[in-house]
Specification:
The protein has ten helices and nine strands. It is α+β, with helices and mostly antiparallel strands and 362 residues long. A hairpin with a 7-residue loop joins strand 6 and strand 7. The chain binds 2-acetamido-2-deoxy-beta-D-glucopyranose (5 copies). Pfam families: Inhibitor_I29 (PF08246), Peptidase_C1 (PF00112).
Length: 362
């Protein structure tokens, strides 16, 4: 029995090790059709996709295009690099249909329109001269989750913001991992796996509360609603003043913030690390993520630390750093257009400290 448990533990450790990174390759792997084929097989095994690929020959052709694109791109030396993550054999169109707004009119569902409403940190005098701030270092952010093939990024973003807020405000003693599946199955306003917005997810959480991840585990498909006991509640949602880098920085310094972004580009699909600065993404937001930190420095790197829900083999262990010192107020990929956050049932007065503007806001 003990041996059996031991073997299972090893398998689990091995599996998580396999999937935690993207695979690397060199120029040699691209030299011949056969070396490319070997790389492809290695990639398939690495991501455990043997069963998922129905048309292997077609996948191989897409894979080859992506590998060559990645290789050429990385040779140019950008501030970020691309890699062979789990989306390595998908065309950008397929990727957009599945994960970034191809299926429906995202404009309608990801925009919550930050009008009216309260912004709790509006009058906060906050010290954001601190160069880098990261809620992960405070133990306030759960390990990365994976929405898999369910288009419900808004739900993952909202739940992540709730988990962190409850812990930061001392509502929960520990950092809880809460259930996205509950909203996918039971939400009134969320749309299962067909594009749930952050706002709809927050409204459902206000109405129903959330149970734990382990009591209502994730399946990645919309199923029938099962009964559950809510262990966490929020009383409302507020909107950060949109398109204002200072206001947004102060908000993130107080709690992780849910945002909508345009994640539809090929560079976003294959992002593998570094500071993302691809200005080709637009302001028409297609996905939702959670900002858990930032770095501000004069003459150095300025970026948002962004938690995604595509597992750990995408990006920097599931995160992306997005350039924050850009020319337009809406932020890169529209990241500042629609920021919102949950508030606890007993709303505490926001903390105050001295505010030093360490960077210039355009
Ligand atoms: C948030 O969603 C609810 C439920 O769909 C809707 O009634 C409300 O108007 C939305 N709020 C905003 C600001 O979009
Ligand atoms: C939460 O508790 C910690 C430790 O007791 C305390 O330092 C912190 O100020 C509390 N936070 C809030 C928002 O009450
Ligand atoms: C959350 O709200 C529900 C419904 O109002 C209530 O039954 C539950 O006890 C609350 N949970 C907590 C932890 O406050
Ligand atoms: C941006 O937000 C800050 C902090 O809330 C505020 O002081 C400033 O006036 C805002 N700027 C604009 C252009 O609204
Ligand atoms: C954003 O959407 C509008 C209206 O659908 C469209 O006209 C515009 O070209 C889009 N912009 C980008 C950058 O995708």
């Amino acid at each position: 029995m003990a041996n059996y448990v031991f073997v299972i533990a090893i398998i689990i450790v091995a599996l998580s090790a396999i999937q935690s990174t993207s695979i690397t390759f060199t120029e040699r792997d691209l030299e011949t059709e056969e070396s490319l084929k070997n790389l492809f097989e290695k990639w398939v095994a690495h991501h455990g996709l043997e069963k998922d690929l129905d048309n292997k020959a077609e996948r191989f052709n897409i894979f080859k295009d992506n590998v060559k694109y990645i290789h050429e791109f990385n040779k140019q030396g950008h501030s970020y690099h691309l890699g062979l993550n789990q989306f390595g054999a998908m065309t950008n169109e397929e990727f957009r249909n599945m994960y970034a707004g191809g299926k429906i009119d995202r404009q309608r569902i990801t925009r919550s329109r930050a009008i009216g409403g309260r912004y709790m940190y509006e009058k906060v005098e906050d010290d954001i001269s601190i160069t880098c701030f990261d809620w992960r270092q405070k133990g306030a952010v759960n390990p990365i989750k994976d929405q898999d093939q369910c288009d419900c990024g808004g739900t993952f973003s909202a739940v992540a913001s709730v988990e962190s807020m409850l812990f930061i405000r001392n509502v929960t003693e520990k950092l809880l991992s809460l259930s996205e599946q509950e909203l996918v199955d039971c939400g009134f306003f969320t749309h299962g796996c067909s594009g749930a917005s952050v706002n709809d997810s927050f409204v459902d959480i206000i109405l129903k509360g959330l149970t734990t991840e382990s009591d209502y585990p994730y399946t990645g498909k919309q199923g029938t609603c099962k009964s559950f006991i809510p262990v966490a509640n929020i009383s409302g949602v507020e909107f950060v003043t949109p398109n204002n880098r200072t206001a947004f920085t102060i908000a993130v310094h107080n709690q992780p913030i849910s945002v909508a972004i345009d994640a539809s580009s090929l560079s976003f699909q294959l992002y593998n690390g570094g500071i993302f600065d691809d200005e080709s993404c637009g302001f028409n937001t297609t996905h939702a993520v959670t900002v858990v930190g930032y770095c501000n420095s004069i003459g150095g790197d300025n970026y948002w630390i962004v938690r995604n829900s595509w597992g750990t083999s995408w990006g920097e262990g599931g995160y992306i750093r997005i350039k924050s010192d850009v020319r337009y107020a809406s932020g890169l990929c529209g990241i500042l257009t629609d920021p919102s956050y949950p508030i606890p049932t007993n709303i505490p007065s926001p903390p105050t400290s001295t505010y030093h503007d360490s960077f210039s806001v355009e």
